[in-house]
Design a protein that fits this description.
Chain lengths: 548, 305
């Protein structure tokens, strides 16, 4: 054994020497760059180094519902959402300077900010806005039709029964009107999300297939320009000197694709400025970063999203409300939150998570952990001997989610439900879920924009939606009410309706097991003075909001 | 020459088989690109629209022959996700994999052959035990473990080498060692056993009796006779390296072919997956033909009239 060790060390030493030797040739340039960086770092460097766990597939936001890092920083939206000191969110004007809504909530008149140009100098016009929404609906492989569908005439354009979007009228270069098919109170908020980034008609048309693929052809009005994109490896952003807003402190951003364990190493060596703890196992975050060395460098924000267990009402015996209620009470949510997530979150009893508009404290605090009551409910429902239940797990889920599912299975076994875990690869998982046949699964919905409709409509807004999310919620009248709720113009009335719907779906019908909302933790390096996470706690951030 | 043509024909048959197999496999396993693209923001209307625009609503034979027709005209199709022609994506990524593989091969074969020969010559000696032990270690430790260990040691502990690939040659050293480590072990083991068998053969005694030094006898006779099976193994390792590269590439953030293939599988991106598999299959076939040619040159018995 010792001989082997000696050899191993000798071999490694030899390798190390070989490495040094080979490195010598390239050292001067590297070293010079490093010193330059270090010197600059003491004054006003401006380089921000981030890591992500998976590369994007496209920079064109109309063709993805996942990859928002480029749209968020290279493009701009009419509005944006900012988090205030008290944790609530507000809508801030960006490309739209002013707007007015008609009494009936159908017509929105906008005036664009004066003098905005794309990073190549092309001016932004109201026609670009119209073009952008038309493109969302006419692109054959558009993934973002949902964000334009509320506009009058959108369905006809999508069905190729019209040539243009009649709901948008361009008055002059800066003024335009959007008419909706029916009132939608969340419309302005939806214009503050990356999918509604405004493109240039001229630049997108000129770029053709290269738009969203080649950095130099992917041009926006945002604070940064995409300089370089090496697939599977890295993205480089630079400050856009033609940007209409204030000059940010971050002038250059390098985003590297890394495995999470590797990220942690790079951060500790000072080669990353921000470490996204969400990508790491919570146990590692605990042992390594919630320590004296790093505790002052931790930044946390509430993820505006609900973690919950989805139950499929189509599958027996989950079609029995008593059984679903038993499951709700059988799971020790508090213990899971404490042991797996180190208490970095908050129990949620409704469908609207804390911080989401429409959140109602009236619908909180009703759901206890009560295995005895769960057993009784099961017995009353005729399942005193329990039943088999399959919990589906996406194999790409984080370690924390995998652990959570394990604990849930254990909790269910404790009340007699024989829960088993079925792990599926991502594509197969989605396929099964979309088919409406997934029995039960761990779901997370992070808000795209701050409106109750964004979460409740997604899961309970139509028969199709209840199918593709495998909940098969049975009450058609409620589904109709969910779809109607978005059109209520009076805000107080609308939120009252959402409160009633939440109570009906979660508490009375036990369609889901609400679990908790979590915090999103980051560790920031010494070079970062102030780091602002995304308002809803997404993984992607606006670089502009960070101060070095 | 005739043999070579026959081999080439065989390669074409294999490729057609590979294409058909992947078609069937992608058809059998659940999940499709439209689903993956929409992910959590799914709606039935969008699934239907995308399925149609990607041509996935067509029947399997229709898709298969449509694809084959494209290949015969040199069109490998476009990736569903990356919106780029598959061929240009492959050609863009392949140089990274090639560089990594060549360096890994240089490392593993040098180390493997050298330690195998030393092991055999110093049979049951201290050095033999050392190299054999290391070879077992090389074979049994998975690539990602070796990768993480190397990163920990050379980046984290001693700050000698970069953590991930940054375009420089230096940053390829760790990935190459991680990737080559495993094959070095198997080459060393086979080299040792083959060579020892030859060293026991009577012709070595003859050679020594003729007055050749032991060193010369090993280098000129035994090594040459031990070579063919080692070379065959090496050719097989080429394919192993290409698949091992998937893991190495993702740990070291190298934008290579392996990552491309991995993404293609995960997203059910048929044209991209077909493209990477055809390309890799071609490389392996060529590698095997080359190995056979080298063996024929080394061993006259393999030559046919």
């Amino acid at each position: 054994m010792t001989k082997r060790h000696v050899f191993l060390i000798a071999l490694l030493a030899a390798l190390a020497l070989a490495g040094c030797h080979k490195a010598d040739g390239e050292k001067p340039a590297d070293a010079a760059a490093e010193t330059a960086q270090e010197q600059a770092g003491q004054t006003e460097d401006g380089l921000l180094r981030l890591a992500v766990n998976a590369d994007i597939v496209t920079m064109d936001v109309h063709k993805t519902t996942n990859d928002y890092i480029v749209p968020m920083n290279v493009f701009d939206t009419l509005f944006s959402i900012k988090k205030k000191g008290d944790g609530s969110t507000e809508i801030v004007n960006r490309l739209a300077e002013t707007y007015e809504i008609s009494e009936d909530g159908l017509t929105y008149h906008f005036t664009l900010r004066d003098g905005v140009v794309f990073s190549d100098g092309t001016p932004l016009t109201a026609q670009d806005v119209k073009f952008t929404f038309e493109r969302m609906l006419t692109l054959p492989d558009s993934a973002q039709t949902d964000y334009a569908i509320a506009i009058d005439g959108a369905q006809e354009l999508l069905d190729q029964k019209a040539d243009s979007l009649r709901g948008i009228t361009v008055e002059d270069d800066r003024n335009f009107t959007i008419t909706l098919a029916e009132p939608f109170a969340g419309f302005i908020a939806s214009l503050a999300t990356p999918p509604t980034s405004i493109f240039s008609e001229k630049l997108v048309t000129d770029a053709g297939d290269a738009f969203g693929v080649e950095p130099e052809k992917t041009i926006g009005t945002g604070p940064y320009i995409i300089r370089e994109w090496v697939r599977g490896s890295r993205l480089v952003f630079e400050y856009n000197p033609k940007y209409w807003g204030d000059e940010p402190s971050v002038k250059r951003v390098e985003v590297v694709v890394m495995e999470p364990q590797v990220m942690s190493m790079a951060f500790q060596k000072g080669d990353l400025d921000v470490l996204d703890c969400f990508l790491l196992d919570a146990a590692i975050v605990n042992s390594t970063y919630k320590t004296d060395t790093y505790k002052d460098r931790l930044v946390s924000t509430e993820r505006l999203g609900l973690n919950f267990l989805m139950l499929n009402e189509k599958i027996e015996p989950l079609n029995n409300v008593q059984v679903r209620k038993a499951i709700q009470q059988a799971i020790d949510r508090e213990a899971i939150l404490k042991s797996i997530y180190d208490g970095d979150g908050k129990l949620e009893d409704g469908i609207f998570p804390t911080g989401c508009l429409g959140y109602s404290s009236n619908n909180q605090g009703w759901l206890p952990y009560n295995p005895a009551a769960a057993k009784k409910l099961l017995a009353d429902a005729g399942f005193a001997d329990g039943f088999d239940l399959e919990l589906c797990l996406d194999s790409t889920a984080t370690d924390s989610v995998k652990n959570t599912i394990q604990v849930i299975a254990q909790n269910l076994n404790d009340v007699g439900i024989r829960a088993s875990i079925r792990s599926l690869d991502h594509a197969s998982y989605l396929d099964l879920r979309n088919s409406g046949d997934m029995t039960a699964y761990w779901a997370l919905w992070l808000l795209d924009f701050n409106d109750p409709d964004n979460i409740i409509y997604t899961f309970f807004g139509s028969r199709d939606n209840t199918k593709v999310r495998s909940n098969n919620y049975a009450d058609d009248a409620v589904i109709e009410r969910v779809a109607e709720a978005k059109t209520i113009v009076d805000e107080t009335k609308r939120f009252k309706e959402y409160e009633a719907l939440e109570k009906k779906i979660v508490e009375e019908d036990a369609a889901i097991v609400p679990m908790f909302s979590l915090k999103h933790l980051y560790v920031i390096g010494d070079r970062v003075k102030h780091f602002t996470p995304h308002w809803a706690g997404w993984n992607d951030v606006y670089f502009e909001d960070t101060v070095l | 020459m005739k043999g070579l043509l026959a081999r080439m024909f065989g390669v074409v048959i294999v490729l057609i088989g590979v294409i058909a197999l992947i078609f069937i496999m992608l058809w059998v396993i659940p999940g499709d690109p439209a689903t993956v693209l929409l992910n959590d923001h799914v709606s039935q209307a969008n699934i239907d629209r995308l399925t149609q625009s990607m041509g996935l609503d067509k029947s399997l034979p229709e898709q298969f022959f449509g694809y084959m027709k494209g290949i015969l005209t040199g069109d490998f199709g476009s990736s569903y996700f990356m919106q780029q022609p598959v061929l240009s994506l492959i050609l863009e990524n392949f140089p990274y994999t090639l560089r990594l593989t060549l360096l890994a091969i240089a490392f593993s074969w040098t180390l493997g052959i050298a330690s195998g020969v030393i092991s055999a010559v110093c049979h049951e000696h201290f050095l033999d035990y050392l190299f054999r032990g290391t070879a077992v270690l090389g074979i049994s430790v998975p690539v990602f473990m070796v990768a993480l260990f190397l990163q920990y040691l050379f980046y984290y502990r001693f700050s000698l080498l970069p953590l991930t690939y940054d375009g420089s040659f230096v940053s390829l050293i760790l990935p190459a060692v991680a990737l080559g480590w495993n094959s070095a072990g198997s080459v060393a083991r086979l080299m040792r056993s083959e060579l020892m068998e030859q060293l026991d053969a009577p012709y070595i005694d003859t050679a020594k009796a003729k007055g050749l030094t032991y060193k010369k006898a090993v280098l000129a006779h035994a090594l040459r006779n031990a070579a063919p099976s080692v070379i065959t193994l090496m050719a097989l390792q080429l394919s192993g390296m290409l698949s091992g590269a998937v893991i190495t590439e993702s740990v070291f953030s190298i934008p290579g072919l392996g990552q491309l293939a991995l993404t293609a599988v995960q997203t059910r991106d048929m044209p991209l997956l077909q493209g990477t598999v055809i390309f890799t299959a071609l490389l392996i076939a060529v590698g095997n033909i080359l190995a056979d040619m080298i063996n024929t040159m080394l061993d006259p018995r393999l030559r046919t009239e």
